[in-house]
Design brief:
31% of the residues lie in helices and 32% in strands. Helix 1 packs antiparallel against helix 2 (166-204). It is built from two helices and ten strands, in the order H-E-E-E-E-E-E-E-E-E-E-H. Strands 1, 2, 3, 4, 5, 6, 7, 8, 9 and 10 form a ten-stranded antiparallel beta sheet that branches. Mean pLDDT is 81; it is low at 20-27.
Length: 205
């Protein structure tokens, strides 16, 4: 009888537990962490990027910060959205990442500065006869309309993917716990109901 009362009390609490899980789900930070990398002969860049968690109308996730290295130089900052990296005027970056399986960058791509005073702008060249990823690299001195001797625009292999967040794993575990608890509470309640029916039938006989 005591176990039955305890089970019924927990059953009444189940909706509250489910509601708490939903509250937790809506309170997760609105950021997504990505791993990205690109390479070519003489080029090796990789790192992480933080984006908003809701894509825009085109499906792109806006990068808000970036970390990593390019050819051993530390990335020191993200190029502001809507502006070109120095030496690549007037081609402004949009700092968008896409999930794929199609192109994961637009023709504008994203931009960043490195500790060596250089800038990079990887993008997807959809205007080429054979579309593909390119990196525009610029080094000082920067002059509009006059590429420097170290500037380059070369084909690259690019890849980016979101990193699973611990918060998402925790929410998944919470959801599984709620389902397991509901199942555990339903079985005793159903068993108790069958027992009551048998007892009632016995007394009626």
């Amino acid at each position: 009888m005591l176990f039955r009362t305890f089970s019924l009390s927990l059953a009444r609490l189940l909706p509250v537990l489910v509601a708490l899980c939903c509250v937790c789900a809506t309170s997760v930070e609105a950021d997504v962490l990505w791993k990205w990398e690109y390479s070519a002969p003489g080029i090796a860049a990789s790192g992480t990027a933080t984006t908003v968690d809701v894509p825009d109308a085109s499906g792109g996730f806006l990068i808000t910060s970036i970390q990593g290295t390019r050819n051993g130089e530390t990335i020191t900052g993200l190029q502001p959205t809507g502006t070109p990296i120095p030496g690549n005027e007037p081609f402004a970056v949009d700092n968008l990442l896409f999930l794929g399986p199609g192109p994961q960058l637009t023709v504008h791509g994203f931009g960043f500065a490195t500790s060596g005073g250089n800038y990079s702008n990887p993008f997807y060249a959809d205007f080429l006869p054979m579309p593909g990823y390119l990196e525009f690299f610029s080094a000082p001195p920067f002059a509009v309309g006059a590429p420097g001797v170290e500037d380059s625009e070369l084909p690259i292999q690019f890849l980016a993917a979101p990193v699973p967040e611990p918060a998402g794993v925790a929410l998944m575990a919470a959801g599984l716990f709620c389902l397991a608890l509901r199942s555990a509470l339903t079985r005793p309640a159903a068993s108790a109901a069958r027992t009551n029916d048998r007892e009632s039938a016995g007394r009626s006989a």
